[in-house]
Amino acid sequence: MNIYIAGLSFSVTDQDLNNLFAEYGEISSAKVITDRETGKSRGFGFVEMPNDAEGQKAIDELNGAEYDNKVISVNVARPKSNDRPSYGGNRGGGGGYNKPRRY
Question: Cβ distance 49 to 24 under 8 Å?
């Protein structure tokens, strides 16, 4: 089960997440998501637990709990959606900026 955790303090590490969820069962991975450029936490992360029952228990008990002086939101992670608009690729147009005017 892949679990999404939001509202994390910016000081929380991968190991902190692992320790928090280890109380509920086996952890496959624990990752705090960081900004690519700065390397600082973005305030959310993911934990993967191989046993769905243990994962659900962790969600039930930790959702809305206070951790590191912040209330966290814990839910089943949803797969990335392809519904978002794509701004790359061949979609025509170019905005018309810096094009010479034709009179």
Answer: yes
CATH classification at residue 70: 3.30.70.330
* Tally of structural domains, the chain: 1
Nearest to 47 by CA among 13, 91, 93, 96: 13
Q: Could you tell me the pTM of the whole model?
A: 0.76
Bridge partner residues of 75 (DSSP) = 4
- Show the domain range for 69: 2-76
pLDDT digits (tens, 9 = 90+) for 61-87: 999 999 999 999 999 998 876 665 555
Q: Which amino acid is at 99?
A: K
